């Protein structure tokens, strides 16, 4: 099927508006189905997790990246994954003294391009999908992390800040459900 | 306003040029989550397609506004053929990077049109399980078309079928055909 000389599989890109609007349709549908922002946040996180455990395969296959030696290494990888999949370049900053916790600052975010949050949705974490993706992807490379939003420009904060914290190394990587 | 912080609203920013791109794989994974989510809430294939279509309609409605302002200088289509061509070319190009392959008029029914696409972008990574043979997740794209047509005051039903790739069957409401006949020649 693939025409020789056409764009290589690696650079398959699509218009970000399709992505943005589709994600928006998902979030608004979730809000209708659950009626409670906390449940929506949880659902988004779960979906993100599912995406994360699969996207890491794609990332490793395409970047042939080596094992991370420390969290700084990991942070850099996460940053490059955002660049690769969403075309944004978040800043890695605010390291904790122990170097086990950092922030990603998003000055632009295609996910929120056309988004305004009504006052009734102030507890909604619109981009909570990200937290799930990071958690899922890291888990597949034996890293347990947690992540959460500290600031959200949709809620009037000056920037969007996502915090990622190292929890522990997973020693035995058993597939889920086979203990 | 309950909060004291000043929010910049969407109207303070200039309209996006639509040149930003994201990875197709990322989209495919998101779409897969949407399909799974829908599937967990319904029990039959037609219901699943209806759900996907609802998602598509949300996208279509918003895309219409955006494209009318950005590509059409605020001018809306009022003729049936024009709006179909608008969907086939402008909408498909912006959303999926290329025009849809064909637009056809049914021989035996002047209410029905077909928009044909050899390979639908949303189906790129989807393999349909055997027991759901007639499921076509391009019901999502059918929803986009339906959203655009309904919002433009061309009430229609759009469904996706496996035929020459994916064929979207667009069935217009009687009123649309009558109105379009009146416009003829003007």
At a glance:
Helices cover 41% and strands 17% of the residues of chain A. With 179 residues, chain A is of the alpha+beta class.
Classify the helix fraction of chain B into a percent range: 40-55%
- CATH topology of chain A, anyone? Muramoyl-pentapeptide Carboxypeptidase, domain 2
Percent of residues in β-strands of chain A: 15-25%
Mean pLDDT of chain B: 90
Span between N and C termini of chain B?
50 Å
Q: Which word captures the global form of chain A?
A: globular
CATH architectural name of chain A: 2-Layer Sandwich
Question: Which strands sit side by side, in order, in the main sheet of chain B?
Answer: 2-3-5-4
Largest sheet of chain A: 4 strands, antiparallel
InterPro entries (chain B): NO_sig/Golgi_transp_ligand-bd, TRAPP-I_su5, TRAPP_component
GO cellular component, one term (chain B): endoplasmic reticulum
GO biological process, one term (chain B): endoplasmic reticulum to Golgi vesicle-mediated transport
Protein name (chain B): Trafficking protein particle complex subunit 5
């Amino acid at each position: 099927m693939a025409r020789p000389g056409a764009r290589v599989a690696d650079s398959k890109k699509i218009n970000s508006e399709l992505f943005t609007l589709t994600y928006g349709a998902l979030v608004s549908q979730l809000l209708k189905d659950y009626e409670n922002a906390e449940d929506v946040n949880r659902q988004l996180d779960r979906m993100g997790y599912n995406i994360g455990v699969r996207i890491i395969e794609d990332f490793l296959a395409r970047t042939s990246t080596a094992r991370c030696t420390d969290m700084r290494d990991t942070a850099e990888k996460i940053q490059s994954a955002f660049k690769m999949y969403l075309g944004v370049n978040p800043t890695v900053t605010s390291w904790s003294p122990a170097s086990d916790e950092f922030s990603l600052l998003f000055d632009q975010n295609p996910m929120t391009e056309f988004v305004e949050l009504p006052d009734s949705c102030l507890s909604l974490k619109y981009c909570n999908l990200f937290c799930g993706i990071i958690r899922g992807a890291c888990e597949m490379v034996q890293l347990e992390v947690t992540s959460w939003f500290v600031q959200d420009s949709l809620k009037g904060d000056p920037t969007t800040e996502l915090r990622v914290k190292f929890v522990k190394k997973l020693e035995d990587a058993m597939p889920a459900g086979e203990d | 306003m309950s909060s004291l912080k000043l929010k910049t609203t969407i109207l303070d920013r200039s309209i996006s040029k639509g040149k930003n791109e994201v990875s197709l794989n990322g989209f495919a994974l998101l779409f897969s989550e949407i399909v799974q989510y829908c599937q967990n809430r319904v029990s039959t294939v037609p219901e699943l397609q209806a759900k996907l279509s609802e998602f598509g309609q949300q996208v279509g409605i918003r895309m219409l506004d955006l494209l009318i302002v950005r590509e059409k200088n605020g001018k809306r289509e009022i003729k049936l053929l024009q709006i179909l061509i608008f969907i086939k070319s402008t909408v498909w190009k912006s959303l999926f990077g290329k025009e849809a392959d064909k637009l056809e008029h049914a021989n035996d029914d002047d209410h029905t049109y077909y928009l044909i696409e050899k390979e639908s972008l949303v189906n790129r990574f989807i393999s349909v399980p055997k027991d759901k043979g007639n499921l076509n997740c391009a019901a999502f794209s059918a929803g986009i078309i339906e959203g655009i047509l309904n919002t433009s005051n061309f009430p229609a039903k759009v469904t996706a079928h496996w035929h020459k790739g994916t064929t979207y069957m667009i069935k217009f409401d009687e009123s649309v055909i009558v109105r379009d006949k009146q416009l003829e020649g003007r």
